Amino acid sequence: MSKYSRIKLLLQEDFKKLEDANIILLGVGGVGSFCLDCLYRSGIKNITIVDFDSYDASNQNRQMWSELHENKTKVIALKEHYPQLQIINKRIDEEWVRAFDFEPYDLVLDAIDDRNAKLALAQKCYKKLISSFGSAKRLDPTKILVDDIWKSYGDKFGSKIRYELKKRGFKKKYKVIFSSEEVVTREKGSFMGVTAAFGLTMCAEAIKEIRKKSSV
């Protein structure tokens, strides 16, 4: 049995599409780190991650490998665990999004919190974008949903994104991951059962999109 024997049983000839896919993942925190681990263990190796942050103690309840790398830069630490990664140690803001070339990537996975950067991503990359809305302040992973941006609901952050996109005249659709659960606190508390489930859902949706692509 090889490392990928079990996933190959599920995907059959589509596994080759995963091996050939080129993915960029923006943000490797509570959502992004679990998405990354899922992508990698599923056979996707052409992955670029972008983040600027370093690990601190507060990350350790929800972020992959954080307890092993306190005070270390996230993207550099993660490359120790996923050696084939391409890493970019940059803050993802609106200016960076507008300047960066996303053309080489099959999918853009958005696990960031910056509202203006998310808006810029939607406008620039909607054809190949999967975006995560708020995963904090919640306790029930069974309330996680996937739909196009205009059908999302139950999330104040997502509501702000929709409002701002409408103001900018943006009418295109793209896929978002969101929760219908009412928040349980005003503070930014986080439960790994939800944040990790967001990341695993993002991975599953990425694989779904990759499988739709025609073989070369």
Q: What distinguishing features does this structure have?
A:
single chain, 216 residues, alpha/beta, Rossmann fold, seven-stranded mixed beta sheet, 8 helices, 38% helix
Indicate the CATH architecture.
3-Layer(aba) Sandwich
User: What's the name of the CATH homologous superfamily?
Assistant: NAD(P)-binding Rossmann-like Domain
Structural class: alpha/beta
Radius of gyration: 17 Å
Please report the first level of CATH classification, the CATH class.
Alpha Beta
H/E series, N to C?
HHEHEHEHEHEEHEH
Mean pLDDT: 94
Number of domains: 1
Gross morphology is: globular
Oligomeric state: single chain
Compute the separation of the termini in Å.
27 Å
Number of strands: 7
**Portion in strands:** 15-25%
* Contiguous uncertain segments of 5+ residues: none
Explain what this protein looks like in three dimensions:
- This protein has 216 residues and is an alpha/beta fold.
- The protein has a single domain (5-212), classed as Rossmann fold.
- Helices cover 38% and strands 15% of the residues.
- It has 8 helices and 7 strands; from the N terminus they run ααβαβαβαβαββαβα.
- Strands 3-2-1-4-5-7-6 form a 7-stranded mixed β-sheet, sandwiched between helices.
- Helix 6 links the parallel strand 4 (107-110) and strand 5 (129-132).
- Helix 6 (115-125) packs across helix 7.
- It starts with a helix and ends with a helix.
